[in-house]
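Feature request disguised as a bug: please show the residue count (467) next to Transmembrane amino acid transporter protein-domain-containing protein in the output. Example input:
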Amino acid sequence: MPDIKEKVEDLQPTPSQIGEVHEGPAYDAVFGEITEEGPNYRDVGLFGTVALMMKTQIGLGVLSIPAAFDALGLVPGVIVLLVIATITTWSDYMIGIFKIRHREIYGIDDVGSLIFGRIGREVFGFAFCIYWIFVAGSGMLGISIALNSVSTHGACTAIFVVVAAVVGGAFGSIQTLGRLSWLAWIGLTCILTSIFIVTIAVGVQDRPASAPQDGTWVPDYKIVAHPSFTDAISAVSSIAFAYAGTPAFFPIVSEMRDPRKYTRALLICQGGVTAVYITIGCVVYYYCGSYVASPALGSAGPTMKKIAYGFALPGLLVTTMLVIHLPGKLIFIRILRGSQHLTGNTVIHWVTWFGCTVGVTIIAYIIASAIPVFDNLISLIGALMGTFMSFQPMGCMWLYDNWTKGKNNVRKSSKWVFMVCWSSFVILAGCFLMVAGTYGSVVSIIDGYKADGGSAAWSCADNSNSV
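Example output, currently without the count:
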């Protein structure tokens, strides 16, 4: 028993390891010495962590869940959602465990370097940045849709996208996640309010806005659907995308005051997110059937769409702000890590920081405005990059920490064998979803381009008419 107790105590981080030094400057394995003169990168509390986690999850993805249920059917849709929730919750849990064991980890690129070397760092780092940059572009378009809806297309859509880029980039340049956490609460509250407004509206109205307005109408929801492989895998990818905030949890746990509270925050986040997804998906799809809009905020008619997007606008802004901040922060730390400029108020510090966030904002804006098939392209990036960073690395992380330890034992424990099988399953499931989802997205891009050629670059057209 004493040996077991000593081993457990060895796994617990000391105050100096997690940055909780009560006298003098704190030292962090990623940021180095943290003093009062510079930004405090270790200032996210428990509830701030919950807000940041939930905001990276509940954003653009939740609005496509009712449409995914329409493709799969109500029962298969809920089952798929629960399976993906279970796998991603374990993946998210592994992030906290891995951070405690490897305090030098900040982002997923550090994980790639630790497990796979220089190539792993570059591949994981590129995937992280390109994924969140595309999501930032999607957020800018989401804001332009909201502005068009609220103002009844009061200005050229290209102008609204510029406004979204400028405001998102400005707030995304706030330096620490600790200072952004209170904005995350505002954004989370607003997006949830807008979603529940639509949910209540579709329940009390006679029929959805896009349904036939003459005669008796009965919701045509399906308990079990029979989609084609392409439609099914696209729907599954949409649900996986709704949980694809996972790679953001690396920087979030790295900026917590006490990473030991990470698991508690994670359980609150995933429990709340899953409950919201199931409620929204089931209720909206039940009342709208095949006439559900995607995004779902347009399902209750023009007036309710204006109200819903009015409440959603701050939430979409906070999402855009966060997904600009995340890749900018990763690049910033990559450039200045190990130097005094990382946590010091120097000219190099500020020029580098604003250069990173402004650069990310400009690239996201150009991608969102210039690519004619952007809506389908974001689905492609989500399937390719989002899935890749939410499943496979976490299976590899468990194997990295535990494979040799268990393999060298003559009598391998049943728990170790199970976890090897589970980690391998997560890796294989991630590979399947990545390849199949990418295929489905490519087919959708081809079909969409044949149908309408995509949207025009820097278009002034009202992009809220179809939602």
